[in-house]
Amino acid sequence: MDTNSPLDRARARAWLTTALAEARAGLAQGGIPIGAALYGADGTLLGRGHNLRVQDGDPSMHAETAAFRAAGRQRSYRGTTMVTTLSPCWYCSGLVRQFGISRVVVGESATFRGGQDWLAEHGVEIVELDDPGCTALMRGFIKDHPDLWNEDIGV
To answer: Is residue 125 annotated as part of the catalytic site, yes or no?
Structure first.
C-alpha cells in the first residue's frame, strides 16, 4: 500500500467493519458504542478497541485510545490509519496529531462532529464514510441513554 496516496474507499469500508464490531461489543457490555482500529502503513491491523469509560470507570478510555494502546509501542505512526465509528473528539484528535497518525477513517459524523476538520487543516487525511450502520447505532444509543452520552461528550 502506498502511504502517500489517498486511502481506497473500499479498503476504508472493510477496515470500518473491525471498528463497528468493537462498537457493538462495547454496547453489549453496557458501554458507549464507539469502536476504533489502528492499521499500519502496510495494512496490518495493529490494535483495536472500544470505548471503555463506563466499563473501566476511566474517562480517558475512548475507543481510539483503546485501539492505540492495544497497538503497543510503534517506532513511528507515519502512514498509519485510525479507523473510528464516530468522528474523533478533541481528546482523540489530539492523540492523532501528537503521534503523527496519517489518516482517520470516520464511520459517521452526523451525530457528533469532533476535531476532524482541525485534523484535516493540519494535514491528516480524513476519509468520511457516512456509514448508515454507524449512524443508526449512535442515534439509538443517544435516544436510549442521553445522560450517558452527554457525559461522554462533556455536556
So the answer is: no
- Chain centroid to Cα 38, Å, comes to 9
CA dihedral 42, 68, 109, 112 (to 10 degrees): -170
**The C-alpha cell that represents 118 in the structure block:** 482541525
| DSSP annotation of 10 | H
- Segment (H or E) for 140: helix 132-144
Of 22, 64, 121, 128, the active-site residue reads 64
User: Shortest CA distance to 152 belongs to which of 47, 65, 48, 61?
Assistant: 61
- What does the pLDDT profile of the chain (155 residues) look like in tens digits? 444 567 889 999 999 999 999 999 999 999 999 999 999 999 999 999 999 999 999 999 999 999 999 999 999 999 999 999 999 999 999 999 999 999 999 999 999 999 999 999 999 999 999 999 999 999 999 999 999 888 877 77
Q: How far is residue 96's CA from residue 68's CA, in Å, rounded to a whole number?
A: 9
